[in-house]
Design goal:
single chain
Amino acid sequence: MISKESVIATDYWHRLDDGRVQCDLCPRFCKLHEGQQGLCFVRANRDDQIVFTSYGRSSGFCIDPIEKKPLNHFLPGSSVFSFGTAGCNLACKYCQNWDMSKSREFDTLAHEASPTTIARIAQEKKCRSVAFTYNDPVIFLEYAKDVAHACRARGIKTVAVTAGYICDQPRIDFFNFIDAANIDLKAFTERFYWKITGGHLQKILETLLYVKHETNVCLELTTLLIPGENDSSSELESMTQWVVEYLGPDVPLHFTAFHPDWKMQNIANTPLQTLIRARAIALKNGIRYVYTGNVYDKPSQSTYCYHCGEILVGRDCYVLSDWNIDGHGQCKKCGTSCAGLFEDKPGQWGAKREVVKIQAMNEI
């Protein structure tokens, strides 16, 4: 049985000469006196060490279409068992999950589940993968790692939806157990990262380079475009050119629409034309798979063969239509390979969203 507050020791910290303890999980390097919590809320100094205070506790469980993460090149049409915790190690002023990621109340963590329980229920629900999402899984690394091990024992894959703001050694440990990731490339200026998120661009770029070149993780990127903040053509040119040069043309990129939330209520929704313009710039610069999200724009939500133009995977929001790709990821018309993980037949989950209630937590 998981306790109401499960506290476990962590590996990513060291003691300072002034008596404080520094958390080394992410580049915030929170320096804490006894009893203090880090900005993420779930890591704290207790008994002169950094501990993780919410192991086995979640803000809720839900089954989603994998495309909602968004991942368009990882088992399309399949269902994914999704959960998050509370807190975050960034401070994005526009956070669209702020009720969870900015929560500093344990009441948010009203649901409990051991790693083996999550894996078992995901298998019973016929989910192909489990996603660490809603808030950034970097801050619940130890819990996510144990869930991943339990899932792998049952043949279930793991997905991370993350901003990638993590230090070198924890980055290695984290992505070692991840099968697919959607990483937020929130902007391409240091000004935006520091002013709007409280983080730094360079550490995100380092994570992207590591995941692409040092792991086998299926990587996709998301950039939420905020009018007047990160949507200029010059910034989009620079960002997409960097992606092609350093990550390659096969990494899928999702441009998604902003809507007013949390501390940025005074900015209007992103116009569809902004997303279309961003997509055109990315395609011009050589990115082969570019999508729009948080809007209805069917042509830009399908996957096309970059060689012959055939629709490989047709999409109408989260519902799949055309399927002209084989289990090896090859176009059935011309044989060109498409980056990602595909099967001979698409999943049939569709656009459904199913909330899962977990009652008894009696597994270890």
